[in-house]
């Protein structure tokens, strides 16, 4: 929410020279209304808009996080977050200075950005375009990712009755379901928005335009370009339903071969794995859904009727362009599949789902992301089957006691492990020494994962726990002296005002000190985060060696899995070997500044835009009407009335107030 205000003066001829201020008129404008000017589909994947004030403070930005905690409490400094504190690579504050000065320019800059709620990070090359917003103190900026962000796919369809029918058929095509993103497609009334989905609202408004005018001239009610996108997406994806059904039928045929005891092509050749197959399922019922998310915000999906597990994927990822499965797959490229699990997957007890997605590029323009969701236990069985069927005599198996195997994603998060509690957690939480080796912390020249350190200037740090008690102030001798002086002053005033004698032994009102317990409190701070990510341009895809741990060592080998964002990590160690070397903690921690750094930070004066003109006087102003504030004197009569009124108040009330 931002406030727009303007002074109102009396401009009548007889009072114009006096410059009488009648008041100030203003209104609160939700920031959401400003964001409507830059819809996501126009900015593309990983593109965003932002605005700053004349002081360089953020009006809105995707990295502006004003709330914290489970109760969504407001941060104390939420309204004074500077642009330089979120665009972290703008060390010389060139972008910030130009936007504060209301320049209309563009520039390129390499930036570090965190994603997935401070869980992942990546480096991007962004193109920034910015311009002033006239008659406001704000400047608007647009950030477009270089490379794929500069390509735009324009739908070559018209809004006609055929397109309307394509929209109507979205949820009636071969068992597929469809959902539109939570964007502003059309202007709906409160009743319409409450009782229908976004897709139903689009169909309603398009149908109304034909029934009322016979043509789709409804510019004031809908975003025509976005409607064309969703019609185009409906046409292109109309045959996916039959394709998905055919794939599931093929999987059912595979199930028959798996469960046929006379067939030599078993799914697993190990008795233990055969039992796990019965728990985790077969390909036919392990795949929960298939989906496609498009640039126009359309999500089309097919639920496997044989799947015994439900998925909230569509509800959690209704805005396609802004969902992780879409944005991360775009960065990975269209020749690979992105595999991911929830960060809390270790708590699901084999019920978690793996999401696999891949981006579809049309002439370098991201058009859609396709993918599936399947049971994690099914992936575990496949992995165990592959890594245990080894015919060579000296072959290492992941089932060996001295071997630990992991499947990691491109950000070093554990996708698969023998211990399910580790799933979804970063490798650095469990194997920090190995993570240091893979990221070059020990001086290794070749690295698989690039280490990135990002300072969060909007962090909230824990103050610690303790107790508060009113009795603690008794330990301060100055409090005792000041309390006595307050009592004495109060006592003398009462004697003079009421002209009576009170009990000279009166010494005040006692209050019981009751301790108040609280768990934690938080304070604004700068917090340092450590991230790891695989950089295809500078990182290697395979690496092996050993890590010395005193009396023992850990052997390791890591290899990229072709066509995916996965890496296979194999560790060989003795069961009793614990790495006691100096290991860096990779947990987020408060950044502590020394006195020199504190002084340097306080001495920095960031560029602000001052008022362009200063109106110190006006030719028609009567100066005799000004400067009278110095002649204001205290009214002795008013002071006497206040003193008499105070004397009539109950003595105990006055005493508790003054003390």
Can you tell me about this structure?
With 659 residues, the chain is α+β, with helices and mostly antiparallel strands. The chain has 18 helices and 25 strands. It has a six-stranded antiparallel β-sheet. Helix 4 (161-168) runs antiparallel to helix 6. Mean pLDDT is 80; it is low at 258-279 and 500-507.
Oligomer: single chain
Summarize model confidence as the mean pLDDT: 80
Instruction: Please state the structural category.
Output: alpha+beta
Give the N-terminus to C-terminus distance in angstroms.
Answer: 41 Å
Classify the beta-strand content into a percent band.
25-35%
Q: How big is the Rg?
A: 34 Å
Helix content: 25-40%
Q: Give the neighbour order of strands across the main sheet.
A: 10-12-11-15-14-13
Which spans have pLDDT < 50 for at least 5 consecutive residues? 258-279, 500-507
Give the overall form: globular
Count every beta strand, where a strand is a DSSP E run of 2 or more residues: 25
Tally of helical segments? 18
Biggest beta sheet attributes: 6 strands, antiparallel
Describe this structure in a few short sentences.
With 659 residues, this protein is of the alpha+beta class. 27% of the residues lie in helices and 25% in strands.
């Amino acid at each position: 929410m931002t406030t727009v205000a303007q002074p109102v003066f009396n401009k009548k001829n007889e009072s114009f020279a006096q410059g009488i201020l009648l008041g100030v008129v203003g209104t609160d404008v939700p920031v959401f209304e400003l964001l409507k000017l830059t819809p996501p589909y126009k900015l593309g994947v990983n593109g965003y808009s932002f605005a700053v004030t004349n002081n360089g403070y953020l009006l809105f930005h995707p990295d502006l996080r004003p709330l914290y905690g489970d109760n969504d409490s407001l941060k104390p400094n939420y309204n004074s977050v500077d642009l330089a504190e979120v665009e972290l690579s703008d060390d010389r504050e060139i972008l910030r200075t130009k936007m504060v000065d209301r320049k209309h320019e563009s520039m390129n800059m390499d930036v570090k950005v965190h994603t997935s709620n401070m869980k992942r990070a990546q480096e991007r090359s962004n193109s920034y375009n910015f311009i002033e917003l006239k008659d406001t103190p704000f400047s608007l900026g647009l950030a477009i990712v270089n490379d794929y962000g500069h390509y735009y796919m324009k739908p070559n369809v018209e809004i006609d009755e055929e397109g309307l029918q394509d929209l109507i058929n979205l949820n009636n095509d071969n068992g597929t379901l469809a959902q539109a993103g939570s964007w502003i497609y059309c202007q709906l009334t409160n009743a319409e928005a409450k009782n229908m989905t976004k897709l139903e609202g689009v169909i309603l408004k398009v149908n109304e335009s034909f029934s009322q005018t016979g043509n789709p001239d409804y510019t004031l009610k809908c975003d025509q370009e976005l409607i064309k996108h969703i019609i185009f997406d409906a046409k292109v994806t109309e045959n996916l339903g039959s394709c998905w059904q055919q794939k599931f039928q093929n999987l059912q045929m595979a199930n028959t071969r798996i469960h046929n005891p006379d067939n030599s092509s078993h799914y697993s050749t190990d008795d233990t794995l055969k039992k796990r197959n019965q728990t985790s399922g077969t390909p036919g019922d392990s795949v929960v859904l298939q989906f496609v998310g498009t640039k126009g915000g359309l999500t089309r999906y097919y639920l496997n009727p044989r799947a015994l597990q439900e998925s909230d994927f569509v509800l959690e990822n209704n805005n396609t362009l802004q969902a992780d499965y879409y944005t991360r797959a775009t960065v990975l490229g269209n020749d690979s599949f992105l595999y991911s699990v929830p960060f809390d997957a270790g708590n699901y007890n084999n019920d978690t789902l793996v999401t696999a997605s891949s981006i579809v590029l049309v002439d370098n323009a991201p058009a859609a992301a396709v993918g599936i969701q399947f049971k994690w236990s099914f992936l575990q069985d496949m992995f165990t089957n592959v890594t245990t069927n080894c015919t060579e005599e000296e072959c290492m198996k992941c089932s060996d006691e001295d071997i630990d195997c992991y499947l990691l994603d491109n950000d070093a998060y554990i996708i698969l492990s023998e211990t399910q509690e580790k799933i979804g957690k970063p490798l650095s939480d469990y194997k920090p020494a190995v993570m240091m080796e893979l990221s070059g912390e020990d001086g290794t020249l070749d690295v698989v994962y690039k280490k990135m350190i990002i300072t969060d200037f909007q962090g909230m740090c824990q103050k610690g726990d303790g107790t508060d008690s009113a009795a603690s102030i008794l330990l301060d001798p100055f409090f005792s002296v000041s309390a006595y002086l307050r009592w004495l002053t109060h006592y003398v005033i009462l004697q003079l005002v009421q002209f009576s004698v009170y009990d000279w032994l009166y010494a005040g009102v006692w209050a019981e000190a009751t301790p108040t317990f609280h768990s934690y409190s938080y304070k604004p701070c700068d917090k340092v985060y450590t991230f790891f990510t695989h950089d295809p341009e500078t990182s290697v895809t395979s690496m092996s060696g050993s890590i010395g741990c005193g009396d023992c060592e850990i052997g390791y080998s890591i290899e990229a899995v072709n066509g995916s964002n996965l890496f296979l990590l194999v560790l060989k160690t003795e069961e009793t070997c614990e790495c006691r070397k100096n290991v860096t903690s990779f947990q987020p921690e408060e950044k502590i500044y020394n006195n020199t750094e504190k002084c340097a930070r306080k001495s920095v004066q960031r560029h602000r835009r001052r008022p362009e003109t200063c109106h110190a006087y006006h030719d028609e102003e009567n100066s005799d009407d000004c400067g009278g504030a110095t002649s204001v004197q205290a009214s002795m009569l008013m002071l006497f009335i206040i003193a008499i009124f105070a004397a009539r108040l109950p003595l105990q009330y006055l005493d508790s107030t003054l003390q």
